[in-house]
Design goal:
The protein is built from 30 helices and 33 strands. The strands form ten sheets. It has an eight-stranded mixed beta sheet, with no helix packed on it. Strands 20-21-22-24-23 form a five-stranded mixed beta sheet, with helices on one face. It has a four-stranded mixed beta sheet with strand order 31-28-27-33. By secondary structure, it is an alpha+beta fold. One of its GO terms (molecular function) is zinc ion binding. Pfam families: ERAP1_C, Peptidase_M1, Peptidase_M1_N.
Length: 1028
């Protein structure tokens, strides 16, 4: 888990909601029942299942005595809570040992030993009381065996005395954990859903066929916001208990359900369609004629299938599904499987029944939609591929269909396992929070992630192709083979991210996806350098922790370490053979990280143990800093943890097994120049008589490199004579690493500027875009600190350094994706610095576009620059808003929105923020984008911070606590702060939230980032003035 600063530790001790809950239990907790005292409420003879071994008293309204195998995280709190059971409060908040002798003892005159003094009696009595107290503690507190550091060591010799939570009806709820018992396994679900799009409600019936794995007297499953109206078991009515804090329901029996028995539970219920973006939710869109259309769609990952039907809502409870949807004749319905039959029911209602799933599925992959959509289809490899959209946008679906078909064929061949379903639908949903969702056979997308116009640029097509490639990869990684629990989410997301880039490089080389993959690896390194990061595979115990796993560590770092592994394996097919074996061995099953490494180890006999190497990358957070030093012909490589924030609590002897790749001045560009050295210990040596060494060839390794003993100077000198002496990936990695080392304090900012001198000769996209991004971050920090002189100098420096490249950019259509990326970055920077030529050219293009009523096209990669410049004029902002309301092409519409949000007019900024929250003119799904765009400008970033504080409850009502949307909002609003005053404000606000978000990892990341910004500014402000 993330280490905390002393300040955070102090606050957690005094303010954690879990403490509040524990403390309340001793004061006023009417709905916690002690079974030892209340045996009549729940018979003591009723035993739970044999797998009932781990109890989680925190974050719930229950208390467990006799803590066993899984003790709480913060040991002193555990002891304190247990001590309070005995009416003792001998431990203070910090867990420090207090002196047990009286602080008021004085030295008296010597007395006769024949008769003990009063003081001696008091001391003796005090000693006896202490001994008796400690004896009681050791007797009654089996969860706490005392050690020097507190009580981390568990005592498993005394049995549990279990205390269960209380259900909404006041009866005891027979389960006390977040994760469900293992005594029941669902075999199949028979679901009937009847949504009413007029009243925005739905009714449902769920029939679950189950198998009993262990003797048990209860069935526990998930249900959230569902009103259970009827429940039957073996044709008899049964009572359903509900425990809302864990979104669980239970049916308890007087007789034991025997191991091996099959049984059926039927539940009927009603509910409201969700008004957020998860569960079974309602959505709407407006057609060109102004008429409003409504629809209902689903988003179940990670924990929201339970909001649509009662179920065992965890990845490893796989089952088959037969689904029926009732609808009005003017709608169609879609689900994971093809439609089997349609039945006309009374009251003009139609029931569509879909085929039973031919595969076992996790509940989060179930999906259904009721809407008025149109589609186009094509058959590929015995699968019907279709793309659905609202009728007005069907002409934007061709590219998605073509891309989907080509990628499906590629994956069928690459994995040597054919896609197992008869159909694959790609559906564009008007209101959709995520980029897309990999529901098996019914993949849902944002419209911007699926629909592209016929005249769209390749850069826009790259976005759509990337998302389709990612979601199709999930049909194997995630759907066919699924992680056992959310702690290993990276097995789904890291693999799908890696495969999206790998597949596009093969199937669509013209999209030039390599630059994008390189850039996301850099961003993953930036995030993982923070102390608030987490291991790729990390413990997950609470719903908000599940949400927080959907971050760049699970996605981009996961993909990066797979790239590193692939690059280190001999030959170009070893990695592929390993993942084919993994997919075939675990098809239809659930896995953990070790299963993957074991499969790869089996097929990689020539490679050092894959499992041992890769475990060092998944089991600990962060990554190594490899330092290269040269003495004569000897090169020494040393590794240490690259940690931007260092404190005593987090100092560890972290070691990675690093496949260090390198090239030298003798041979540095071609793949055959690459040499590999496995660094398994703190340092290693190799003999090389060369002018220079460049480590991490083409940046395939997930680490940062520092060059000592003139190493940097030699590389910079080589680049100044010949840019092409290194690959463009290596040049970009030198730029990224240098800025990262400046942030760490290993190199001065003067050295950064020294490296960037070669940029006047740079022509490739990735080194330039990386340099512009890094300089842009510093420029905005200086701007927001109102360091006006430095801002002016930084502006002059950037325009001088990159001015010749900026001047070379054209404003006409450009086919090359790489050139589009370069042009977009250079002109975006030029216009943001108010470079005169860029501003006038942008205004001219916008005027031409408006006067032609949209028939004159702005090149896709230049639209963002043009719309952003236009929005700086109030008149053009109003024109842009009108165009935004009328636009139907979603990629262009999103760029217009970013333009609107980039205004520096305070009143317009407030309007944009409020409109995004309301969701009328601007969809609420776009609010994170609006906030991040507003924060880039000087005028808006403080408005956003006020807006978030005032509207926090509304935000977490729309976006779940810990979700990627909330992570984005927090990061955008705080990453530009660099002063103590702002640090205090951010800390004070988020700590005041308590259970409404204070413990999110993204909050710790925000605080750490502000401190790092503050540290960098304090260290570099004076020298910046000198060097610039």
């Amino acid at each position: 888990s993330s280490s905390k600063s002393h300040l955070l530790q102090t606050w957690y001790r005094s303010n954690q909601p879990r403490n509040m809950i524990e403390n309340r239990m001793f004061e006023e907790e009417p709905d916690v029942v002690d079974l030892a005292k209340e045996s009549t409420t729940f018979p003591t003879s009723q035993a739970l299942d044999p797998d009932d071994v781990v109890y989680e008293p925190r974050s719930s309204r229950l208390l467990v005595r006799g803590l066993g195998e899984n003790d709480m995280d913060e040991d002193d709190e555990d002891c304190e809570s247990s001590a309070r059971l005995l009416g003792m409060s001998f431990m203070n908040r910090s867990g420090a040992h207090r002196s047990l002798s009286s602080p008021y003892t004085r030295q008296g005159a010597p007395r006769s030993c024949a008769r003990p003094s009063a003081r001696t009696l008091v001391v003796c009595m005090l000693f006896l009381v202490i001994v008796a107290s400690m004896t009681m503690v050791l007797y009654f507190l089996p969860g706490c065996t005392f050690t020097r550091s507190g009580c981390p060591k568990t005592n498993t010799t005394i049995p549990f005395e279990k205390v269960y939570p209380v259900s909404t009806s006041g009866e005891v709820f027979p389960w006390a954990q977040l994760r469900l018992p293992r005594s029941i396994r669902p075999l199949s679900y028979d679901l009937t859903l009847n949504p009413d799009l007029d009243s925005m409600t739905f009714t449902g019936r769920t029939i679950i066929h189950m198998s009993v794995l262990h003797n048990t007297k209860c069935i526990v499953l998930h249900s959230a916001y569902l009103n259970i109206t009827k429940a039957t078991f073996k044709a008899r009515g049964v009572t359903v208990l509900e425990y809302k804090p864990r979104e669980q329901i239970a049916v308890a029996f007087t007789e034991v359900l025997k191991t091996g028995q099959d049984c059926v539970l039927t539940l009927e219920y009603s509910a409201n369609l969700s008004h957020t973006y998860d569960g079974f939710y309602n959505s709407s869109y407006t057609e060109k004629d102004g008429s409003k259309r409504v629809l209902a769609a689903t988003q179940f990952e990670p924990l929201s299938a339970r909001k649509a039907f009662p179920c065992f809502d965890a990845p490893d409870f796989k089952a088959t599904f037969l689904i029926r949807i009732r609808r009005k004749p003017n709608h169609l319905s879609l689900s994971n499987m093809p439609k089997a039959k349609t039945t006309q029911l009374p009251n003009d209602v139609i029931e569509d029944e879909f085929e039973k799933t031919s595969v076992n599925m996790s509940t989060y992959l179930v999906a259904f939609i009721v809407a008025n959509f149109t589609h186009i289809s094509r058959n590929v490899s015995e699968t019907q591929v279709s793309v659905y959209s609202v009728p007005e946008k069907w002409e934007h679906t061709d590219y998605a269909l073509d891309t989907g078909c080509k990628l499906l064929e590629f994956y069928n061949g690459f994995f040597e396992i054919n896609y197992p379903l008869k159909k694959l639908d790609l559906v564009a949903i008007p209101d959709f929070l995520a980029g897309a969702m990999e529901n098996w056979g019914l993949i849902t997308f944002r419209e911007t992630s699926l629909l592209v116009g016929k005249q769209s640029s390749n850069l826009e097509k790259q976005v759509v192709a990337s998302v389709i490639a990612h979601e199709l990869a999930h049909q194997w990684f995630g759907n066919l083979v699924t992680m056992r629990w959310w702690n290993d989410l990276w097995l789904n997301e890291g693999f799908a991210t890696y495969m999206q880039y790998m597949s596009l490089q093969t199937v669509f080389p013209q999209l030039d996806i390599g630059n994008l993959f390189l850039a996301v690896r850099f961003r993953a390194l930036d995030k993982d350098a923070l102390n608030s990061s987490h291991a790729v595979s990390t413990e997950v115990n609470k719903p908000e922790q599940v949400e927080e796993m959907f971050d760049s560590v699970s996605y981009e770092k996961g993909a990066s370490i797979l790239l590193m592994l692939n690059a280190s394996l001999p030959g170009d097919q070893q990695f592929r053979k390993g993942i084919i074996q993994y997919l075939k061995e675990f098809s239809g099953l659930n896995t953990d990280t070790n299963d993957l490494w074991n499969s790869l180890t089996q097929v990689s006999a020539q490679h050092p143990n894959v499992s041992e190497m890769m475990s060092s990358w998944t089991s600990q957070k962060g990554f190594p800093l490899v330092t290269v030093s040269r003495k004569g012909g000897q090169v020494t490589l040393t590794q240490e943890h690259f940690r931007l924030t260092s404190d005593n609590a987090t100092q560890t002897s972290s070691l990675w097994i690093i496949p260090v790749t390198y090239v030298t001045d003798n041979c540095s560009v071609a793949p055959e120049c690459r040499r590999t050295f496995y660094l398994k210990t703190k340092s290693g040596k190799t003999q090389k008589s060369v002018k220079w060494v460049k480590v991490n060839y083409r940046n395939t390794g997930f680490y940062i490199t520092h060059y000592e003993d003139g190493g940097w100077a030699a590389l910079i000198d080589a680049l100044s004579h010949n840019v092409s002496v290194l690959t463009h990936e290596d040049r970009a990695s030198l730029v990224h690493n240098m800025f990262a080392l400046s942030r760490l304090g290993r190199v001065s900012f003067h050295q950064v500027l020294h490296l960037l001198k070669y940029m006047s000769n740079e022509t490739h996209t990735s080194p330039v875009t990386e340099a512009l991004l890094q300089l842009g971050v510093i420029y905005r920090l200086l701007d927001k600190r109102q360091e006006h002189r430095l801002v002016a100098r930084m502006k002059s420096y950037i325009l001088h350094q990159f001015g010749s490249l900026m001047d070379k950019q054209t404003w006409e259509e450009e086919d090359s994706v790489s050139k589009q990326e370069l042009r977009s970055a250079l002109l975006g920077m030029a216009c943001s610095l108010n470079e005169e030529k860029c501003i006038s050219q942008s205004r001219a293009l916008f005027k031409q576009y408006v006067e032609s009523n949209g028939t004159s096209r702005i090149p896709g990669d230049l639209q963002q620059v043009v719309f952003t410049v236009a929005a700086q004029s109030n008149e053009d902002w109003a024109t842009l808003l009108t165009m935004y309301g009328q636009a139907t092409y979603d990629a262009e519409k999103r760029k217009m929105l970013r333009g609107l949000a980039s205004t520096q007019d305070a009143r317009l900024i407030v309007w944009v923020l409020k409109a995004g929250l309301r969701g009328d003119v601007i969809q609420t799904q776009e609010l994170p984008l609006v906030i991040s765009t507003v924060c880039n400008g000087f005028t808006g970033y403080l408005f956003v911070w006020d807006f978030i504080q005032e509207n926090w409850d509304s935000l977490i009502e729309k976006f779940p606590v810990g979700s990627f949307a909330i992570q984005t909002i927090i990061k955008s609003a705080t990453s530009h702060f660099s002063t103590q005053a702002h640090l205090d404000q951010v800390q004070g606000f988020f700590y005041s939230l308590r259970e409404r978000g204070s413990q999110m990892r993204s909050v710790q990341e925000a605080l750490e980032t502000i401190r790092l910004n503050q540290r960098w500014m304090e260290k570099n402000l004076a020298t910046l003035e000198k060097w610039l």
